[in-house]
């Protein structure tokens, strides 16, 4: 198996197509990467900005060049000696009549060849929550028309056309008669409903709470083959040399899926987007190279955050906002809200299955639906990670112990244990009667954690936003060099070829924005003054928690970037709605949001460029950025450079992190790095290029080299990578004041970087 030495993540769509990507292949080669790492390339919903809403997994997206364009890109990459890693989406597809397979299901129902491809509960009609009003209201307004399309009749709802089965009522409904249309609707395998009812009950498994995405049943061999046929063809043709799997935890049985995929792709590197929480490790029976890199990013952040300064930040945060709840309680509260609101349809379906099992149980028969529902909510609120990996026939002791611990915590939070012990027992006994419930429960816990933590609690518990990151925890404690070394030794032993990222399309903030915020822990007095300046500009209707959040966000932005005010407006609206306390995506508080935008404008107008009070933080942040970059490029794993992050990048949450990249400027920097305006741009670009070329020249050292901690005091983190006669030494200063001589003593050998600037890093190599 040929592994990449480094990948460069490129987001296709929104101006990036195959021909433009082919044009930057020489730049990528000269930068030093070995593989282009592409976002999903299969045909997606019209107007998709990311490609994760696939409509046809058998076709390459025509909007970015189609199959011919992909082949041109492949030839351009091969000409530069580069490979292609492809991001695919095995868990779900777009829930849309634009999807050919789903369109067939809408027309033929359970008789469709694809009826079992999707995770649909066929005990009821397929609910389509796409109407702007209840069905009868829309009907009374003559909102429906029967039309003919190339593949057959359809019901036009006023912009959306739903395929119709050729039923007895079709002819009469063509007249537009309301009773006839109502009768025709009743004959279909689907039911159109108001979009606001989607949380009440749905007939398909969603991706998280996104009703516009429908789960695939890739555990079925035919579904697996059909949905992966194009991938296998592209690998066989030599177009794709690596695979990234999106949202592996959504699958019914990830281990079974991965074993099947590995059997079909025995010589292709595979990485899975698996979020590991706390002490959780990648399941040992997963035949993949590792995760996509969030574990490493979390370790870098914990190393580069100052513990004493964080204590001061925490104290100031509590005093300024009045917040006293532990982060664990904030998360549990968010989970309860998510389960009863965003995921109420999933909760309803789980409760129906739980009730059916309980009714046949001598203990469970005593519980009514409300006690069962209460037990489900509290068990999920107490769950400490995305999911367990029980199968229809097996429950590992590790998973059983995890469920029991969660059950014990859930019971302790209730006035009486209620049905929690029953639920614990059902989830931990591997019998056929409970298998369907057990497997579906696992899929729901992952959605609950993701929505409650990343998309809710991260916007409520905001003491230091650099810790509020995918795979991280708001109450993450910093660890010194010893803790970092333990994490890297585990990584070297268990997944030495995992991806190593610091920014992705999903990170809440880009790597350098996070380091700006982490730097506040090194200069808490400076941040206290910055917050005071921000707080003075706030209106009384804005909660102190939002003010604290925006003070950090202002720090994370760079005044030389473009469109800062508009970007901050978009971000503050998203932050408020994701918090789900005062305004919501489905019910915006326009007065509050307008006030928050006005506040954001005042911050930009009065405090950018950053005031003198922020200078100590900004200076420390530049050093932390170089430290983080050097770690990513040298620790065990395959490093992943997100587009544009070879220089300083100060982006906020999606979609801000998908702004266009000026590749012409980056290409020019290859011949003259002084063309880059900011000092950090020049230093980071030089560091990245130097280490990428070294990785490509000495792949065994970086991919298979040992990891050995070097003894230092807590002001320096140092380690070596050894393979054969080669030794790479790395030393990173964790505090100001570390001298060049101290770094040289910690990382002896021929200097690789830096060679012309003062930096908090030393990277050297020895032979023999």
TrEMBL record:
Which branch of life, at top level? Bacteria
Location of the Glycosyl hydrolase family 13 catalytic domain: 5-448
Q: One biological-process term from Gene Ontology?
A: alpha-glucan catabolic process
Keyword Cytoplasm assigned to the entry: answer is: no
Q: Which UniProt keywords apply?
A: Hydrolase
SUPFAM superfamilies reported in the protein's UniProt record:
(Trans)glycosidases
Q: Name one GO molecular function term.
A: (1,4)-alpha-D-glucan 1-alpha-D-glucosylmutase activity
Q: Which CDD domains match?
A: AmyAc_MTSase (cd11336)
Entries under Pfam families matching the protein? Alpha-amylase (PF00128)
Provide the protein name. Answer: Hydrolase
């Amino acid at each position: 198996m040929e592994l990449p030495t480094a990948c460069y993540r490129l987001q296709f769509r929104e101006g990036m197509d195959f021909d433009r990507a082919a044009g930057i292949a020489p730049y990528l080669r000269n930068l030093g990467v070995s593989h282009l790492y592409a976002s999903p390339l299969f045909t997606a919903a019209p107007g998709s900005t990311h490609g994760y809403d696939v409509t046809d997994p058998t076709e390459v997206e025509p909007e970015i060049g189609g199959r011919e364009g992909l082949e041109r890109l492949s030839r351009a990459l091969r000409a530069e000696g580069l490979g292609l890693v492809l991001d695919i989406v095995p868990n779900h597809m777009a829930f849309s009549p634009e999807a050919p397979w789903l369109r067939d299901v809408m027309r033929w129902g359970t008789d469709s060849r694809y009826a079992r491809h999707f995770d649909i509960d066929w005990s009821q009609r397929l609910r389509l929550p796409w109407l702007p009003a209840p069905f009868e209201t829309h009907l009374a307004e003559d909102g429906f028309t029967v039309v003919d399309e190339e593949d057959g009749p359809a019901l036009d709802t006023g912009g959306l056309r739903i395929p119709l089965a050729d039923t007895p009522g079709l002819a009469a409904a063509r007249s537009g008669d309301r009773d006839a249309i109502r009768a025709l609707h009743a004959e279909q395998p689907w039911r159109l409903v108001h979009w606001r009812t989607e949380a009440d009950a749905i007939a398909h498994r969603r991706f998280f709470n996104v009703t516009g995405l429908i789960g695939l049943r890739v555990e079925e061999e035919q579904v697996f083959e059909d949905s992966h046929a194009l991938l296998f063809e592209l690998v066989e043709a030599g177009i794709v040399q690596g695979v990234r799997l999106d949202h592996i935890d959504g699958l019914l049985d990830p281990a079974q899926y991965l074993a099947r995929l590995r059997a079909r792709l025995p010589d292709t590197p595979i990485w899975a987007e698996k979020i590991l929480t706390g002490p959780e490790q990648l399941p040992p029976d997963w035949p993949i190279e590792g995760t996509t890199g969030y574990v490493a990013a979390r370790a870098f952040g914990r190393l580069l955050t100052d513990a004493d300064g964080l204590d001061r930040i925490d104290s100031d945060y509590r005093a300024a906002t009045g917040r006293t709840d532990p982060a664990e309680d904030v998360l549990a509260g968010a989970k309860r809200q998510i389960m009863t609101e965003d995921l109420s349809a999933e909760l309803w379906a789980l409760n129906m299955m739980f009730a059916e099992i309980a009714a046949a149980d001598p203990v469970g028969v005593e519980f009514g639906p409300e006690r069962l529902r209460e037990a489900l909510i509290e068990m999920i609120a107490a769950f400490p990670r995305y999911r367990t990996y029980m199968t229809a026939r097996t429950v590992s002791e590790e998973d059983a112990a995890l469920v029991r611990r969660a059950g014990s915590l859930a019971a302790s939070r209730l006035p009486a244990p209620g049905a929690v012990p029953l639920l614990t027992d059902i989830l931990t006994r591997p019998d056929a009667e409970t298998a369907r419930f057990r497997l579906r429960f696992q899929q729901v816990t992952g959605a609950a954690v993701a929505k409650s933590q990343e998309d809710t609690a991260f916007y409520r518990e905001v003491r230091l936003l650099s810790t509020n990151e995918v795979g991280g925890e708001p109450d993450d404690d910093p660890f010194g060099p010893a803790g970092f070394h333990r994490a890297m030794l585990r990584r070297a032993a268990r997944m030495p070829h995992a991806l190593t990222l610091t920014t992705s399309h999903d990170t809440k903030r880009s790597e350098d924005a996070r380091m700006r915020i982490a730097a506040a822990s090194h200069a808490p007095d400076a941040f206290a003054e910055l917050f005071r300046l921000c707080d003075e500009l706030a209106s009384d209707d804005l909660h102190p928690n939002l003010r604290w959040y925006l003070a950090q966000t202002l720090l994370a932005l760079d005044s030389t970037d473009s469109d800062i005010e508009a970007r901050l407006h978009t971000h503050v609206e998203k932050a408020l709605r994701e918090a789900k306390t005062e305004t919501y995506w489905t019910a915006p508080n326009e007065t509050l949001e307008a006030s928050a935008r006005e506040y954001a404008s005042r911050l930009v107008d009065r405090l950018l460029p950053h005031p003198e009070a922020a200078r100590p933080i900004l200076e420390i942040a530049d050093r932390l950025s170089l430290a983080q970059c050097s770690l990513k490029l040298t620790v065990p794993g395959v490093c992943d450079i997100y587009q544009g992050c070879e220089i300083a990048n100060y982006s906020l949450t999606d979609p801000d992190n998908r702004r266009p990249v000026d590749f012409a400027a980056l290409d020019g920097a290859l011949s003259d790095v002084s063309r880059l305006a900011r000092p950090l741009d020049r230093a980071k670009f030089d560091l990245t290029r130097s280490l990428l070329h070294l990785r490509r020249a000495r792949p065994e050292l970086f991919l298979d080299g040992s990891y050995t901690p070097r003894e230092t005091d807590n002001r320096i983190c140092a380690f070596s990578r050894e393979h054969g006669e080669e030794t790479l030494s790395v030393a990173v200063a964790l505090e100001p004041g570390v001298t060049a001589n101290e770094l040289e003593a910690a990382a002896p050998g021929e200097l690789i970087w830096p060679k012309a600037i003062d930096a908090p890093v030393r990277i050297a190599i020895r032979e023999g």
